[in-house]
Specification:
The complex is a heterodimer of chains A (308) and B (261).
Chain A (H helix, E strand, L loop, with lengths): L1 E13 L5 H10 L5 E14 L4 E5 L6 H9 L6 E6 L3 E4 L12 H11 L4 H14 L15 H12 L6 E5 L7 H16 L3 E5 L3 H7 L2 E6 L2 E6 L2 H14 L6 H36 L2 H15 L1 H4 L1
Parallel strand pairs in A: 3-7, 3-8, 5-6, 6-7
Antiparallel strand pairs in A: 1-2, 1-4, 8-9
Chain B lengths: L4 H9 L1 H16 L8 H20 L7 H22 L7 H4 L7 H28 L12 H24 L3 H14 L12 H6 L4 H15 L5 H25 L8
The chains are: A alpha/beta (308), B mainly alpha (261).
Chain lengths: 308, 261
């Protein structure tokens, strides 16, 4: 269970960052010291039940990652509340935060301690983690000697060890090589299937549509929609990405989705026309064998039923 | 009202992480040297050996227990200097993990403080050996040195909490602090005696907390007595004040740290 109510997160931007004490004093004297507030997440409310998978969509800088960090507990809300029904695991930038000078073994135990595992559990699970990350034989290497794929694999293996009640995935569905990806997807499905509340941050509408049963649409920190009409809203979102027109009402959404479907159809038709023209050109001018081959290829793509 | 009882509980809950963080500090410190952890013993031995040679062969030959005087001042001040100047980066140095996992940020400062306290413990043992060389008579009163050691730990922790908070917001604190440390060292009578100064001047030294802790060590080691209630009051007062202020400031601002990483 996860219940977010009127969440607002504002953080300071402007002169406060990295200018140091001397500069701060000088600017204060010159009355040139400015702190602005940047509202990253503004009045967002939603509530999820066990087994729900929420897709969080929005343009770059819409506040998706800030929201994820708030749910993970790293960023504290400026206003509003977050009620978590259990342990949260956030799979964010998996290879970050390891100590480059320590060995893989030392890093694994340290990270396990950070994840809140008990000592007994961490030591017991150690072999399993190394095996899952496919890092046998690298255990005494220092962490900086690993490839970036290996680092991410280790991060995933430690983080996904226990079954969290709330899982946050920030564009990490593709870690490592294809072999590991399959394994990690399988593990992720186990966690999701185990009744976790999952939050998926993604730019791929295909992925969101195929995995999520609810979506949260953010725009400049504001909540455009929280709904279970995943397909409709994903389609409307695609239209928004094309025309930058934000829906204000439910009708707007339907209209946007409709016009995207129309646009998509006209695009398909246009593509088909272009290919037909190409086909005609090839048939008229080309050498007979090549022309036939090209024609068959195009037909197979557009009208497979004709070739059957 | 702040409840201090929960601190112990929180530390207990995160004992495993605390252990690992302290271990990491030691491992990283001695990773590159062949002698490894042994270096943490050898380093104060060598440092004190050099000082003993300098101050018995060249300077201050006529002052009784001069090496002990210098070494007491030196180990206490070095502990204060290292714990605070390196401890201040405890939060910023772990910023990458602190933006990913919700962890008690004070624990990182605490673990750094413990690492330096352990180093100080080793220094004290080596210091005792040199006291023996200097012909200092040992007695049960040496046990009381545990008091300034604990108080110094609390004092350093408090100062480090303040500095690590400031360091998140202002990165030039590091340089300003090194200047402050230099000034503080000259005001701590590490290398010189203050016997010759007028009374009013001598009293000013009590304003310097580090001088208070140094004095405690010197009185026990050189004069063979437990310091007065006044010294105790100051030692406790400075430690408690530093910790209460440090904890208050850290608690007040820790939620905003993440925006400045």
């Amino acid at each position: 269970m996860l219940d977010v109510k009127n969440l607002r997160i504002a953080y300071p931007v402007g002169d406060v960052l990295d200018i140091g004490l001397k500069e701060t004093v000088i600017r204060k004297i010159k009355r040139d010291f400015q702190i602005r507030e940047f509202v990253a997440v503004d009045n967002v409310s939603f509530s999820l039940k066990q087994g729900d998978m929420l897709g969080i969509i929005g343009h770059n800088g819409a506040g998706k990652s800030t929201l994820a960090k708030a749910i993970a507990g790293v960023v504290k809300p400026t206003c509003g509340t977050i009620a978590r029904g259990g342990k949260v695991t956030a799979l964010l930038e998996l290879s970050a935060g390891f100590d480059p000078d320590l060995t893989v073994r030392e890093n694994t135990i340290l990270r396990a301690a950070m994840m809140g595992y008990s000592k007994e559990y961490a030591l017991k699970a150690y072999d399993h983690i190394i095996q899952f990350a496919e890092l046998q034989g690298f255990e005494e290497r220092s962490f900086k000697q690993l490839s970036s794929g290996m680092k991410a694999r280790l991060g995933f293996s430690i983080a996904s060890l226990v079954d969290p009640e709330i899982l946050i995935l920030d564009e990490v569905l593709s870690v490592g090589d294809s072999g590991f990806r399959k394994k990690s997807e399988k593990r992720m499905k186990e966690i999701i299937g185990g009744g976790a509340v999952t939050l998926l941050i993604s730019h791929s509408m295909r992925q969101v549509q195929s995995l999520c049963n609810k979506i949260l649409w953010l725009d400049h920190g504001r909540q455009i929609a929280f709904t279970d009409k995943v397909e409709l809203y994903c389609t409307a979102y695609e239209e928004f990405m094309r025309t930058k027109e934000l829906p204000k009402t439910e009708e707007d959404v339907v209209r946007l989705a409709h016009s995207y479907t129309e646009w998509k159809q006209s695009e398909t038709e246009r593509a088909a026309r272009i290919e037909t023209k190409k086909l005609e050109a090839i048939l008229e001018n080309g050498k007979s064998e090549a022309a036939v081959k090209a024609a068959v290829a195009i037909l197979r793509k557009q009208r497979p039923e004709l070739l059957a | 009202m702040i409840s201090y009882t929960t601190i112990a509980e929180k530390i207990k809950a995160r004992k495993f992480l605390l252990e690992e963080l302290v271990k990491r500090d030691f491992k990283k410190k001695y990773k590159r040297s062949i002698l490894g952890i042994f270096w943490s013993v050898l380093s104060p031995v060598l440092m004190m050996l050099v000082m003993r040679l300098m101050f018995t062969q060249f300077f201050g030959r006529d002052i009784p227990y001069y090496t002990t005087y210098i070494l007491a001042g030196n180990i206490v001040f070095s502990y204060f200097r290292d714990a605070t100047s390196e401890g201040m980066s405890a939060v910023v140095g772990n910023s990458r993990i602190l933006t990913k996992i919700d962890l008690p940020q004070m624990l990182f400062v605490f673990s750094k403080s413990i690492s330096f306290a352990l180093n100080f413990g080793i220094s004290i043992v080596v210091f005792f050996v040199f006291c023996a060389f200097d012909g200092i008579p040992f007695g049960w009163h040496f046990i009381t040195l545990i008091i300034p050691t604990i108080l110094l730990f609390v004092f350093n922790l408090g100062i480090t909490l303040i500095l690590s908070t400031l360091y998140v917001f202002m990165k030039d604190i590091r340089y300003l602090w090194s200047v402050c440390l230099r000034l503080l060292m000259y005001m701590s009578a590490v290398f010189y005696r203050i016997d010759g100064y007028p009374e009013a001047m001598k009293r000013l030294f009590w304003l310097n907390p580090v001088y208070v802790y140094i004095t405690y060590f010197r009185e026990v080691a050189m004069e063979g007595r437990v310091p007065s209630g006044f010294v105790h009051a100051l030692a406790i007062g400075y430690a408690v004040a530093a910790f209460v202020v440090g904890r208050y400031i850290f608690r007040k601002y820790e939620d905003t740290f993440v925006f400045y990483f």
